[in-house]
Design a protein that fits this description.
alpha/beta, Rossmann fold, SIR2/SIRT2 'Small Domain', 2 domains, 6-stranded parallel sheet, 3-stranded antiparallel sheet, binds zinc ion
Length: 241
């Protein structure tokens, strides 16, 4: 496959390679994309159950969904695509992952430099005093400092992404020689800006998706079509022996 071989050449010459991942990398692990038609999203409309206003009014509703997601994430394993990226990082060929996923699967696969752009399912934080904890078990955590119900530490609709992640991701994207878009159509703002920031600063854009996206005929230099749990291990096998 010509595109893969061209991508391998670019990756071999890159001094900073950054990956942006989305829901498509975790579907093979059994985590449904919230834009899909999975039954979970019929039972728990994300525009309601994952909205900051719902948290203010009925935090238990948000936690009902959050605990389901946490249980789901703990019941799955990283797949071949997550492992391929971890192998790239170990080999010095990948310098950072910006993930829009909250499932912690990159970290569980062994990736170390991961920016949880939309936060993580594994933590909870207090919106009053900012205390952040890793809740034990599957119950709704209450802040030990101020007694309020804590918020799941992932970004809800109507909420800004964590400031540190936002700034670090922009910085990584702007200095990338190669920017790989994996399993995402990158339409959710502000993550959608990242491939454009990379491109404007001279990066080569490699896109790996099962279908063409709005990026493909716009800023993508090399489009590698297919399920990423197939294409990523193939790509990495050409670089890491
Ligand atoms: Zn508190």
């Amino acid at each position: 496959m010509h595109e893969i071989d061209e991508a391998v050449k670019k990756l071999g010459a890159s001094r900073q390679t950054i990956a942006l991942t989305g829901a498509g990398i975790s579907t093979a692990s059994g985590i449904p994309d919230f834009r899909g038609t999975h039954g979970l999203w019929k039972a728990y409309d994300p525009s309601m159950y994952a909205h900051i206003n719902t948290f203010y009014e009925k935090p238990d509703m948000v936690w009902e969904l959050a605990l389901k997601l946490l249980e789901m994430a703990h019941g799955t394993e990283p797949n071949r695509a997550h492992h391929a990226l971890a192998a790239m990082e170990s080999a010095g060929l990948l310098h950072g992952i910006i993930t829009q996923n909250i499932d912690n699967l990159h970290q569980r696969a062994g990736s170390r430099n991961v920016i949880d752009y939309h936060g993580t399912i594994e933590q909870a934080s207090c919106i009053t005093c900012r205390t952040t904890i890793m809740p034990a078990g599957y119950s709704v955590p209450v802040c030990s400092s101020c007694g309020r119900i804590m918020k799941p530490a992932f970004t809800l609709f109507g909420e800004a992404v964590p400031a540190a992640a936002f700034l670090e991701a922009r910085n990584l994207a702007s200095f990338a020689d190669v920017f790989i878009v994996i399993g995402t159509s990158a339409v959710v703002q502000p993550a959608a800006d990242l491939p454009f920031i990379a491109k404007e600063n001279g990066a080569c854009i490699i896109e790996m998706n099962s279908e063409e996206t709005g990026l493909t005929n716009y800023i993508t230099d090399f489009f590698i079509k297919g399920a990423v749990e197939e294409t990523l291990p193939l790509l990495v096998s050409k670089m890491v022996k």
